[in-house]
């Protein structure tokens, strides 16, 4: 995978992880209620769920390219439209995405279980991966390149949430995130719109 392509993937995955939402609120709640370890447990289990969805998506898209290239092209364009819609939604969110994460009594096992359930129980996550990864999967993509895509999504997701859990356990990360939620939304919106425009003008693998 070319470095420029991987950087695009990494940037969108990072913005997706940083966007205020239920996953981030979950990690914050467990960190506030149980300390660093429950927060880290929630972060790592959520990343495993993300990796599972990414693996299914990459594997399924790879088979689809070989058997039905025209259908894959349609999915690519539909994915670009979906990413554009998400981008517009993020730009319009403004401060509406600000977090309100109350503390809750928790344990490491409970945090890990809920982190996995939040990832696997979010149907929008699989839609996001289908839309996102269809822009990066190519017919001749090697197994190693597909593994890079999956591990990139999983490591960035887990790395961000672990950083939040560790930082929140001894600093003022939550107020910082709350104050900048609208800027995170705007940056995410711009990146998603840029990716959608990129694939519309020059579809990957087309």
TrEMBL record:
The keyword Membrane applies. GO terms for molecular function: amino acid transmembrane transporter activity. Keywords: Cell membrane, Membrane, Transmembrane, Transmembrane helix. The chain crosses the membrane at residues 41-66, 117-137, 143-163, 183-201. GO terms for cellular component: plasma membrane. PANTHER family: AMINO ACID EFFLUX PERMEASE RHTB FAMILY, ARGININE EXPORTER PROTEIN ARGO. This is LysE family translocator. It comes from Halomonas eurihalina.
């Amino acid at each position: 995978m070319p470095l420029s392509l991987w950087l695009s993937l990494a940037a969108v995955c990072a913005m997706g992880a940083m966007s205020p939402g239920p996953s981030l609120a979950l990690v914050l709640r467990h960190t506030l209620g149980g300390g660093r370890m429950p927060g880290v447990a929630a972060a790592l289990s959520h990343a495993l769920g993300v990796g599972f969805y990414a693996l299914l998506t990459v594997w399924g898209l790879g088979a689809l390219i070989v058997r039905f290239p025209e259908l894959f092209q349609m999915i690519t364009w539909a994915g670009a439209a979906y990413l554009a819609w998400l981008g517009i939604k993020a730009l319009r969110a403004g401060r509406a995405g600000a977090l309100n994460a109350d503390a809750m009594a928790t344990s490491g096992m409970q945090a890990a279980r809920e982190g996995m359930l939040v990832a696997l129980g979010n149907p929008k996550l699989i839609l996001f991966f289908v839309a996102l990864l269809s822009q990066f999967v190519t017919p001749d993509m090697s197994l190693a390149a597909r593994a890079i895509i999956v591990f990139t999504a999983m490591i960035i997701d887990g790395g961000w949430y672990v950083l939040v859990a560790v930082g929140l356990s001894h600093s003022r990360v939550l107020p910082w995130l709350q104050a900048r939620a609208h800027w995170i939304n705007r940056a995410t919106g711009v990146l998603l719109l840029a990716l959608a425009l990129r694939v519309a003008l020059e579809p990957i693998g087309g």
